[in-house]
Task: inverse folding
């Protein structure tokens, strides 16, 4: 019996020691929250493209055209604020402004977000500069393997804990501004809202009517039988 009591006492001491290591926070311990250990920083990033305006209906060569269109596509996804288009000052400036401004507008960019201007030519550089501000998300690099995680007596969270997850979130987020807070709500479909409320008040099905041709390929749940 004495030996049994001895084993019990030893087990209790081990539990107390382990618990004291995991609970005590002297300011140097890593948190069990990976987002706290490796916070994601969201910062503005200036993006610029320079292309040559050749005049005429085409305006640019095929290589610059591809670069310009890709730049505009990236702006529509990641751009924040206005799209700046600055052309070299001179006799061809008006034609250049018209060409690039109209080409940008035709891709769906609102005209009130396209800012055009001219700049002085420096060093014979006659290229047109297109730019905008985007936001990028990043966190510190992972890879601190100094600790032997297979043997530890202080029961501390390893320094790399949560780092890979934070790196993946920063790399995958479509709009880094979403990490700063919720975005603005889109326009309200008042007609649809009124229709739903009308059906609801009458005890009728509020969901939209599904076309027969779409039912075979849809991924949503089946139609409700409520009110039928």
Result:
């Amino acid at each position: 019996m004495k030996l049994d009591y001895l084993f019990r006492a030893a087990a209790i001491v081990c539990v107390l020691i382990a618990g004291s290591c995991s609970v005590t926070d002297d300011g140097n311990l890593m948190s069990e929250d990976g987002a706290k250990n490796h916070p994601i920083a969201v910062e503005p990033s200036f993006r610029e493209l320079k292309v040559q305006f050749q005049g005429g209906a085409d305006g640019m060569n095929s290589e610059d055209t591809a670069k310009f269109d890709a730049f505009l596509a990236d702006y529509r996804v990641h751009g924040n604020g206005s799209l700046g288009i600055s052309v070299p000052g001179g006799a061809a400036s008006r034609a250049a402004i018209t060409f690039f401004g109209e080409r940008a507008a035709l891709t769906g960019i609102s005209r009130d977000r396209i800012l055009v201007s001219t700049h002085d030519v420096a060093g014979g550089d006659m290229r047109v500069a297109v730019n905008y501000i985007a936001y990028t998300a990043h966190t510190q690099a992972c890879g601190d393997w100094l600790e032997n995680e297979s043997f530890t007596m202080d029961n501390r969270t390893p320094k790399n804990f949560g780092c890979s997850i934070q790196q993946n979130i920063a790399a995958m987020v479509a709009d880094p501004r979403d990490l700063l807070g919720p975005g603005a709500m889109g326009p309200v479909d008042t007609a649809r809202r009124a229709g739903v409320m009308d059906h609801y008040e009458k005890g009728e099905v509020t969901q939209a009517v599904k076309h027969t041709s779409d039912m075979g390929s849809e991924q949503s749940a089946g139609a409700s039988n409520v009110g039928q």
Q: What stands out?
A: Residues 50 and 129 are 5 Å apart (CA to CA).
